[in-house]
Amino acid sequence: MIERGVLSHSKMFFHTPSEFAKTSLFYLIYSGTFYCTSDYCIDRNNWNSYLFMHVKKGSITIHYDDREFVATENHFVFLNCYKPHLYQADEQTEFDWFHFSGNASDSYFDTLFQKNGCVYAIEDHYVLTDCLKRILRMTETEAVDEDAASIMIHQILYELKQYKNHGEEVHLKAIRNVTKYIEHHYKEPIMLDDMAKVARLSPYYFSRIFKKQMNCSPYQYLVNYRINNAKKLLHHTNLSVQEITYASGFNSVSHFVSIFKKHTNLTPKKFRDIQF
User: Fold this and answer.
1) Structural domains counted in the chain
2) Nearest Cα to 249, choosing from 201, 184, 205?
3) Is 100 found in the same domain as 16?
4) Domain for residue 225, yes or no?
5) 121-158: pLDDT as tens digits
6) Which distant-in-sequence residues (6+ apart) come within 8 Å of 228 by Cβ?
7) Which of 26, 91, 131, 176 is 20–30 Å from 219 (CA)?
8) Is residue 122 in a domain?
9) 234 and 105, same structural domain?
10) Is 188 inside any structural domain?
């Protein structure tokens, strides 16, 4: 493949639409399946088409209309490539895609973008993925039925129009699961990968949505939780600083004292002496 970051076993297919298709139908232009590294990046002012993508593995960041979107596994993308746009793989990524156009494409895109942006958390939406796979099979075998392809493109647009984007709700649920996990396991060593696994997201994507929702990184949240637990123990118990260190999930007294002082401007002993 010519594109930087696109691996050699990727597939790309071309279709030249008929004049009838261009005037009367939604019509295909290019399609394919890409396997990419994090070097993959497309930055264009205009590409005279619209784009559907189904991310099957990995993560893609999209910049469009001064906004940033992230599509990860089982996310569907609808992008207007007539306007400036950029999308890039954040890690090893696999996705099916096709470029298309048609007289009603612009109206559909504007309506859907205002409602949901350009990324849809589709889980395993059978109709969307089935239509996309059938279109890819047509182009791969060079047996494109333009009327059937137009119907399937319209079906995808219809499904997206009926879709209610639960992405934020899904993200909030994932983050709640992680915060509950921290509540029960803060005394143990916890790594970013552990939290991402609980959220069922890639570490990169999890870090981004956590910071967006919580205004701090996952690591900062974990440290804050441990510090708050230490404060309670200092105020309500007679446990030694060493005992509180390990009871709060820190692996050494010196590390605990350093972090505690950084967050409170006080040593644990001085904090304990405060009269509330």
Assistant:
1) 2
2) 184
3) yes
4) yes
5) 887 678 999 999 999 999 999 999 999 999 999 999 99
6) none
7) 91
8) yes
9) no
10) yes
Strand partners, 69: 62
Query: Both 127 and 201 in a single domain?
Result: no
State the pTM of this model. Answer: 0.65
Residue 108's Cα: distance from chain center in Å? 23
Which residue range is the domain that position 173 belongs to? 168-273
DSSP sequence for the chain: --STTB-TT-EEEE----HHHHHHS-EEEEEEEEEE-TT-EEEES--SSEEEEEEEESEEEEEETTEEEEEETTEEEEEETTS-EEEEESSSEEEEEEEEE-TTHHHHHHHHHHHHTTEEE-TT-HHHHHHHHHHHHHHHTT---HHHHHHHHHHHHHHHHH----HHHHHHHHHHHHHHHHHHHTTS---HHHHHHHHTS-HHHHHHHHHHHHSS-HHHHHHHHHHHHHHHHHHH----HHHHHHHTT-S-HHHHHHHHHHHHSS-HHHHHH---
| pLDDT tens-digit readout, 71-108 | 999 999 999 999 999 999 999 999 999 999 998 999 99
Domain end call among 165, 185, 218: 165
In angstroms, the CA 99 to CA 226 distance is 50
Write the CATH number for 255. Answer: 1.10.10.60
The CA distance from 82 to 85, in Å, is 9
